[in-house]
Amino acid sequence: MKKLNYVIGASLVLLLSGCTENRGKISINDTTKSIKISQAEVLALYARCAGCHGLDGKKRVFGKSGRIAGQSKSELIRKITGYQKGTFGGSLKGLMARQVEPLTPEQVNALAEYISKL
Ligand code: HEC
């Protein structure tokens, strides 16, 4: 009987710990919503953006985008969520939407904070 309890307990722990990997997206487990995104995660997220916007955020992508460095955090959140919702952007907004579509609100917040300080 003791052994059975152990097996049930172990299965419960596995069930409750959940799965944080979701089709390649980095997502925050429901039970850990208050946990802040680490600097390492922000850097990993920004590495994707840097391919186009530059490590310093000063590149004008294809000569078309604005420079993202130096914009305020709230402005960046407004634009990134605008791309996610399809309510903001120029002729290349479809391309940007694909970049930010998988980001959670916590990730957008952390990225905007990081970019505003570049
Ligand atoms: C494949 C290249 C590419 C990647 C990768 C990319 N962007 Fe962009 N970004 C663009 C282009 C092109 C535009 C201009 C789109 C338009 O027409 O609105 C843009 C525009 C933006 C703007 C609006 C700038 C402004 O003030 O007009 C923000 C903010 C932004 N990107 C943030 C990000 C973030 C954050 C990431 C990473 C998660 C990212 N981008 C990844 C190409 C890229």
TrEMBL record:
<dbReference type="InterPro" id="IPR009056">
    <property type="entry name" value="Cyt_c-like_dom"/>
</dbReference>
<keyword id="KW-0349">Heme</keyword>
<feature type="domain" description="Cytochrome c">
    <location>
        <begin position="29"/>
        <end position="118"/>
    </location>
</feature>
<keyword id="KW-0479">Metal-binding</keyword>
<dbReference type="GO" id="GO:0009055">
    <property type="term" value="F:electron transfer activity"/>
</dbReference>
<dbReference type="GO" id="GO:0020037">
    <property type="term" value="F:heme binding"/>
</dbReference>
<keyword id="KW-0408">Iron</keyword>
<protein>
    <submittedName>
        <fullName>Cytochrome c</fullName>
    </submittedName>
</protein>
<dbReference type="InterPro" id="IPR036909">
    <property type="entry name" value="Cyt_c-like_dom_sf"/>
</dbReference>
<dbReference type="GO" id="GO:0046872">
    <property type="term" value="F:metal ion binding"/>
</dbReference>
<dbReference type="Pfam" id="PF00034">
    <property type="entry name" value="Cytochrom_C"/>
</dbReference>
